[in-house]
Amino acid sequence: MQTVLIVDDSRLQRRIVSALLSKWGLDVYEAASGAEALDICKRVDPDLIVSDWMMPEMNGLTFCQKFRDLPRDSYGYFILLTSKGEKDDIALGLDAGADDFLTKPVNAAELRARILAGDRIVGMQKELSEKNRLVQSTLCELQKLYDSLDSDLLEAKKLQQSLVSERYRDFGNARVSLLLQSSGHVGGDLVGVFPIDENQVGLYSIDVSGHGISSALMTARLAGYLSATSLDQNVALVLNKNGTYSARPPAETVADLNRMFLNEIETEHYFTLLLAHVDLGRGIVTMSQAGHPYPSVQRVNGRVELVGTGGLPVGLIDGATYEEFEVKLEPGDRLFIHSDGVDECASPDGTLLGHGGVKKGLISLKDMHGMAFIEAFIWNLSNHAKKDEFEDDVSAVLLEFTETAILA
């Protein structure tokens, strides 16, 4: 404590107290009234105020209240000088903002003890203010880092969404519509379609374990393994001698991805996968299921059936084998492949959508097609969850054979 302001309408009383404080090495200011004291406080910002209670025009209580209303960077310790000793009077002083009381005439030893007590409190307050300043400064720096990270994540989301550059493809006999919606900025789901030859296309739906940046990075790498633009890097295809490509059996491709994932990529992640090869001419879809939810087939009459063989996720067990199964789609039939973010979408009371909810949604939207169906399905899902943001990534592939398709 360095600066003390003495406020008393008695010049003699001010001099007595001032002499004691100056002797103790404190910087002392004097004021004969509350109004004068307020003017000094606006210029000096004292650490300690010793003010008489009974003063003309503005008494010590009113001055204390006005002092507390002044904007200050640090705390000012306030001692009221009084001859009053009643409990009600002390309560009034505390309500006005006083910290301590000292009876008149002032005893030097008692005054010094009260000043030392005030000095400890002011010192702790200054230390606390400095710590708060450091905390605030650190929070500001963290906010800047968060804003920078948030901006980077928004760009990452745009890049991840660009992995699904075409959400709708028309192949003549069939149409493919894609859905990809992350629960956060970026996620671990990925869907896609790639050409095999003029009569065949490949479809995939991937769900990497976990959420966030590491899962998103893994989906980006997997997108390269099933690339639609760099077919020479697509592990689901085989290059023929004449320069064309043929499809590898889906189960063989999934097993190869499992080996690569375990032996070549150091990660704690694994992923589920549904890989499909579609014969556009015959309407035959050959699939391999690796821990992914069972796909649904909806016939032209609206009836829905689940298909699949289950299987282990990719990246869990070395040497895992995978099965294949086929589905024959007739004109007007469609295949719906989705991640577990769909059937595990929970309502506010915790009820999961489940296979039954997916089936009900397909039936209710049987007359809707393409991206209109996708948008309506998402709307239904949001209505089930009672919110627009989902707890898990949501993705889906809709393959529809046109009702005018002529299949072999």
UniProtKB/TrEMBL annotation:
<dbReference type="InterPro" id="IPR001789">
    <property type="entry name" value="Sig_transdc_resp-reg_receiver"/>
</dbReference>
<feature type="modified residue" description="4-aspartylphosphate">
    <location>
        <position position="52"/>
    </location>
</feature>
<dbReference type="Pfam" id="PF00072">
    <property type="entry name" value="Response_reg"/>
</dbReference>
<dbReference type="InterPro" id="IPR001932">
    <property type="entry name" value="PPM-type_phosphatase-like_dom"/>
</dbReference>
<dbReference type="InterPro" id="IPR052016">
    <property type="entry name" value="Bact_Sigma-Reg"/>
</dbReference>
<dbReference type="InterPro" id="IPR036457">
    <property type="entry name" value="PPM-type-like_dom_sf"/>
</dbReference>
<feature type="domain" description="Response regulatory">
    <location>
        <begin position="3"/>
        <end position="119"/>
    </location>
</feature>
<dbReference type="Pfam" id="PF07228">
    <property type="entry name" value="SpoIIE"/>
</dbReference>
<keyword id="KW-0597">Phosphoprotein</keyword>
<keyword id="KW-0378">Hydrolase</keyword>
<protein>
    <submittedName>
        <fullName>SpoIIE family protein phosphatase</fullName>
    </submittedName>
</protein>
<dbReference type="InterPro" id="IPR011006">
    <property type="entry name" value="CheY-like_superfamily"/>
</dbReference>
